[in-house]
Amino acid sequence: MQPMTDYFRNDVLEKRPYIKLEWCLEALRNPLRREVQPEDGRIRHWVWVKEVDRYLRVVTLADGVTLHNAFPDRRFKP
Predict the structure, then answer these.
(1) How many CB atoms lie within 10 A of CB 30?
(2) Does the residue 24 lie in any domain?
(3) pLDDT digits (tens, 9 = 90+) for 34-69
(4) What is the Cα–Cα distance from 24 to 31, expressed in whole angstroms?
(5) Is 77 a domain residue?
(6) Can you give the residue range of the structural domain that contains 40?
(7) pLDDT > 90? residue 1
């Protein structure tokens, strides 16, 4: 089972039902880009999702594994 925060489980997956867990896992396995947030050490991962024709930003805790947030990122430029 993939580790995830309560926020990810209860808010992200509930309020954004169009986001599939498999897309988030693909972002962790094969990110187009990976970047550490300097303010808290969380890690951003981006992946292209053909089904929604957008880049998905997936944020993990500093461990790089625990899912915390995910959303289509309209401002991302590869």
Answers:
(1) 9
(2) yes
(3) 999 999 999 999 999 999 999 999 999 999 999 999
(4) 10
(5) no
(6) 6-72
(7) no
